[in-house]
């Protein structure tokens, strides 16, 4: 009886938890213990939240944001600017921009970047949806807010190319010194970009 | 409509996940995204595993181990030595000893340590259960495997005192250099203990 059912229950749960980013096998076991000690206040609410959120939340048909409604609440918010679309790689980037609270337009979530290495081409991303939105008219600016990585910038260049035939402004996020950042810790590329884009004081 | 229901779903889930040890607010949000991308293969199985494990698994009436049976499979395993009890603070310590595979007796889980600071006295721990088990007879050795912390050692001394009136051996884990450990990185207490308990080569 070395193949304990109890071990199976607990270990199966630990194995599932270990698949979450940020949790390894050891911290997943710690998490299981923590959960078993807080069944009513944490474990069962978490089970319910997981199944309910899985059932309710899905991608918005317009922008790809995750929401329990489609179109999502950003797309259907009348107070947001419909003429400007900010293109991001992932929903996490959309969340980051929303947390910053500095953007009041629409979004478009690509669902990744072009990657020759991983075999991700334009058809694997939500690019056709973006072109269709722009083609539908009424858009005056597209901000390409892909990450400042090689793949992110490759994707931005590809989109720039695709969007060139439309009568609109295509922009990208500024490079520079992060607010609160120390020059000593920045890479040369960032410093170069920050110098090149220097502004009058 | 700033109080989005969608934000509530996703953020409520993130808040619950952030209560797990090892996950902060940021990694909890990353985990939610990861889960939403793997609904069928991870999110729903995790929800099921959580509710099933919560329902099935509870503390063993004899030793306090977590199991879907009570008495647990260690207590009811006929091949394990019934005459020796290893006392641990927490189920995680029991798991660690079981992973090491070096102990084939019974366990007793205290559920913590005595702590004057946190107001945890003998009645808050599963100490009466241990005394009852020893009082029941048939035990020849109790190993006090509480942690080598101040609270752990205080608890061990308290238990030593309580167990003194029984006719049995009370032992504790050896202190010394961890296997694979480098002397340079060890604290003086450990080095002193390792020297004091030195053995012929």
UniProtKB/TrEMBL annotation, chains A, B:
Which PROSITE patterns does this one have? RECR, TOPRIM
Q: Which CDD domains match?
A: TOPRIM_recR
- What species was this sequence derived from? Govanella unica
What family does this belong to?
Belongs to the RecR family.
Q: Which GO terms describe its biological process?
A: DNA recombination; DNA repair
Q: Which domain of life is it from?
A: Bacteria
Q: What does this protein do?
A: May play a role in DNA repair. It seems to be involved in an RecBC-independent recombinational process of DNA repair. It may act with RecF and RecO.
Concerning Gene3D superfamilies, the annotation shows:
3.40.1360.10, 6.10.250.240, RecR Domain 1 (1.10.8.420)
UniProt-recorded Gene Ontology molecular function terms: DNA binding; zinc ion binding
DNA damage listed as a keyword: yes
State the protein's name: Recombination protein RecR
Where does each C4-type zinc finger lie?
A: 60-75
Q: Where is the Toprim domain?
A: 83-178
Tell me the keywords, alphabetical order: DNA damage, DNA recombination, DNA repair, Metal-binding, Zinc, Zinc-finger
SUPFAM superfamilies, per this entry?
Answer: Recombination protein RecR (SSF111304)
């Amino acid at each position: 009886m070395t193949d304990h059912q109890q071990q199976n229950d607990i270990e199966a749960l630990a194995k599932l938890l270990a698949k979450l980013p940020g949790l390894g096998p050891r911290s997943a076991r710690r998490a299981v213990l923590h959960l078993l000690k807080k069944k009513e206040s944490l474990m069962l609410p978490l089970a319910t939240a997981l199944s309910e959120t899985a059932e309710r939340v899905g991608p918005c048909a317009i922008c790809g944001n995750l929401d329990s409604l489609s179109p999502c609440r950003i797309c259907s918010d009348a107070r947001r600017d419909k003429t400007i679309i900010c293109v991001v790689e992932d929903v996490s980037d959309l969340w980051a921009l929303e947390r910053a609270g500095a953007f009041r337009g629409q979004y478009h979530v690509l669902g990744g970047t072009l990657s020759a290495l991983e075999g991700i081409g334009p058809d694997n991303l939500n690019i056709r949806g973006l072109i269709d939105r722009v083609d539908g008219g009424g858009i005056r600016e597209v901000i390409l807010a892909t990450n400042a990585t090689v793949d992110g910038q490759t994707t931005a260049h590809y989109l720039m190319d695709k969007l060139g035939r439309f009568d609109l402004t295509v922009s990208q996020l500024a490079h520079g010194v992060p607010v609160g950042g120390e020059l000593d810790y920045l890479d040369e590329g960032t410093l170069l970009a920050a110098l090149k884009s220097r502004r009058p004081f």
